[in-house]
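Supplementary Methods. Inverse-folding protocol.

Structures were first reduced to a discrete structure-token string of length 303. This string, shown here, constituted the complete conditioning input.
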């Protein structure tokens, strides 16, 4: 090989290495092909590096220690409500919310290539995914239903172990990732099935914050009559819409609660004024994030 050719290959390798080092590292709960990965790609684009985490706690830790630059965490589902432990994890972390993604959850039955529904004897998936497909499964009582830790992990294990006769319920991304064929698309019982994901970062972009129209906050109140009512009036006074309110117990403080709220506003100045008013009524207040409200994403399950 000539010197010029070697130099050219070296430059090409250096460019590729630099490009890979510039890719955003995004932590998700689960393995590649999980709905968390789909949400990450919807927010950041496809040119990202996925950091797989077994648990949501590990997801938080991976960002805080610098193994990932960002994270995607599910916090709410339109059918089952809030994932309250995740709200607590975010509140207790050093991270901030910089965005959100609403993703329609489309569940698909997938198996090794060249199999049919009639050849399937066992179905594996996360318990929530199985519950979301109960109508489909109840019509096929011959199937053995097995709960697993993760939707995409079920697909991965079927592929890696070449498990004929076993199907997974997971996303289209999982089928693509692990070379499985979808033999029954969109088998979820309720098509109005959306999950909301929060986008987590170690820092808040102040320029983006100015253009934002939504915020997530956490606060605690003194135990006295009218305290919650007085606190919420801080929002209505400045024309701010309260879109979500959850209460979580303060661990170690019996019958004391943290309130998590999402609010939507027209101007950041209105939010800041409401926040100033809210401080007068709380004994704990944290702005978890100020960001632009996400849009619903409705995808065809076979695309």
């Amino acid at each position: 090989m000539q010197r010029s050719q070697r130099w050219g290959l070296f430059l090409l390798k250096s460019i590729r290495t630099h490009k890979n080092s510039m890719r955003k590292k995004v932590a998700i709960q689960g393995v590649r092909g999980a709905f968390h990965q789909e949400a990450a790609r919807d927010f950041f684009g496809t040119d990202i590096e996925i950091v797989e985490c077994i648990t949501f706690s590990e997801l938080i830790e991976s960002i805080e220690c610098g193994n990932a630059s960002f994270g995607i965490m599910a916090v709410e589902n339109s059918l089952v409500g809030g994932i309250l432990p995740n709200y607590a994890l975010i509140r207790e972390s050093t991270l901030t919310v910089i965005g959100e993604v609403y993703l329609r959850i489309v569940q698909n039955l997938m198996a090794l290539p060249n199999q049919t529904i009639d050849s399937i004897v066992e179905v594996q998936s996360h318990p929530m995914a199985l519950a979301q497909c109960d109508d489909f499964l109840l019509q096929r009582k011959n199937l053995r239903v097995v709960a697993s830790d993760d939707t995409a992990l079920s697909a991965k294990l079927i592929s890696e172990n070449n498990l004929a006769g076993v199907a997974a319920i997971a996303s289209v991304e999982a089928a693509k990732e692990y070379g499985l064929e979808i033999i029954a698309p969109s088998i979820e019982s309720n098509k109005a099935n959306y999950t909301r994901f929060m986008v987590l970062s170690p820092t808040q972009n102040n320029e983006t914050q100015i253009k934002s129209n939504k915020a997530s906050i956490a606060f605690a109140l003194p135990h006295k009559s009218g305290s919650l009512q007085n606190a919420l009036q801080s929002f209505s006074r400045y024309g701010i819409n309260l879109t979500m309110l959850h209460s979580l117990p303060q661990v170690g403080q019996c019958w004391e609660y943290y309130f998590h709220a999402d609010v939507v506003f027209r101007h950041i100045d209105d939010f800041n004024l409401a926040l100033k008013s809210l401080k007068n009524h709380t004994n704990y207040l944290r702005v978890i994030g100020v960001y632009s409200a996400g849009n619903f994403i409705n995808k065809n399950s076979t695309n």
